Amino acid sequence: MPYVTEQNLTDVVLDRWQNIADPRLRQVMTAAIKHLHAFVREVEPTEAEWFTAIDWLTRTGKTCTDKRQEFILASDVFGVSMLVDAINHRLSSAATPTTVEGPFHVADAPELANGASMAEGAPGIPCFVTGKVRGLDGKPIGGAVLDLWQTDGEGYYEAQRDTDGPWMRGLYHSQPDGSYVVHTVAPIAYTIPMDGTVGELMNRTQISHMRPAHIHFCVTAPGFHRLVTHLFQRGDEYIETDVVYGVKEPLIVEFQKKPAGSKAPTGEVVNESFYVINYDFALERAAQAAVAAE
Ligand code: BEZ
Ligand code: FE
Predict the structure, then answer these.
(1) Are 205 and 199 in contact (CB under 8 A)?
(2) pLDDT tens across 125-180, in order?
(3) End-to-end CA distance of the chain
(4) Whose CA is nearest to atom 6 of ligand 1?
(5) Considering every ligand atom, which ligand is closest to the CA of 73?
(6) Residues with CB under 5 A from ligand 2 (ion)
(7) CA of 214 to the centre of ligand 2 (A)
(8) CA 136–ligand 1 middle distance (angstroms)
(9) Nearest-angstrom CA–CA distance, 108 and 123
C-alpha cells in the first residue's frame, strides 16, 4: 500500500472505495469523495473551521424532529432540492412545471366540494382559484385530485398555528369538463424558519430568507405524471429572490383584484373585495414523462 501524501491521498482513498459490489453505491461514493476532497483542497480549511462545519452539521441533525427537518431546509436554500426536482421531472415545456414540495404538506387533507372553502375562519383576503386540468393534447381531465396547502393571510401554515386542524388545506376534484374552483384566502410572503442552524447561517449572509406568496398544489390523475407545484403571485417583492429557488416563469399568476359586490367564480356575490386566479394545469402522460426523463 502506498503511504499517503497530500498529493496522492485522494487517489488512495478513491482506490479503496472501489471495493463496493453495488455499482450505484460505488458511483455515488466515488463522486462524493472526489468532490469532497476537491472542496477541501480548494478551501484549505483550518482545523478550527473544519470542526465548526462538523458542529454545524451535528446541531442541524439535533434540530430535526418528526415535525421539523433542518437538513431538507438546508438542501432547499442551497438550491439542491430544486436541482433534484428538475432532474427527476424533465417534463415537456408544454406541461405545468414542478417545484419543491416544501415541509408543510400534511397528508389526508379534508375532501371538499367544488367551490367549497378551505379557509373557514382563517384571516385574509378571500381568493378564488379556478381553471381546468387538461392533458397536453388539451383534453379535459375529469376526476383529477387537487391537493392544496398554503399559508393563511397572516403567513402561517397549519403546523405554525396552535390548531388541531385542518387549516388552509383541502382536496378538490376536477369536474367532468376538467374545471375546478377553489375558495380560499390569499397567501402572503413568509420567511423560512430562521430559529435553527439554517437561519444562523442565513443571518451571516445578505441573502433574503423570504418566499414570495404562493399556493401549493399536488395534482394527480390516473395515467398522468404526478405534479407537485406552486402558483406564485405576480408582482410579489420576493418573486426574483425566492430563498428556495422555486419560482418558474409559467407558475407566476395574476391575483386579479375584484371590488366588493362582484360575482365570484362560485356564482356567489362577495360583499368585500377579493382575488381571482385563473390557471389551467397541463399534465403530462406518465409514460411520456418517463421517456423524457431518460
Ligand atoms: C414552502 O414552500 O412551504 C417551503 C419550501 C421550502 C422551504 C421552506 C418552506
Ligand atoms: Fe410554501
Answers:
(1) no
(2) 999 999 999 999 999 999 999 999 999 999 999 989 988 889 999 999 999 999 99
(3) 41
(4) 102
(5) 1
(6) 102
(7) 6
(8) 28
(9) 23
| Sign of the dihedral through C-alpha 212, 215, 216, 222 | negative
CA-100 nearest atom, ligand 1? 5
Q: Which atom of ligand 1 is nearest to the CA of 77?
A: 7
* Contacts with 129 (C-beta within 8 Å, 6 or more apart), sequence order: 148, 180, 181, 182, 184, 215, 231, 276, 277, 279
Place of cell 373585495: 273
* 208: confidence class by pLDDT, cuts 50, 70, 90: very high
User: d(Cα 227, Cα 171) in Å, to the nearest integer?
Assistant: 14
Asked whether the whole model's pTM tops 0.90, one would answer yes
> Are residues 221 and 143 in contact, defined by beta-carbon separation less than 8 angstroms?
yes
Q: What residues does ligand 1 touch, defined as CB less than 6 Å away?
A: 73, 76, 100, 102-104, 192, 211, 244
Query: Closest-lying ligand to the alpha carbon of 210?
Result: 1
Provide CB contacts within 8 A for 56, sequence distance 6+.
Answer: 197, 200, 201
pLDDT of residue 6: 97
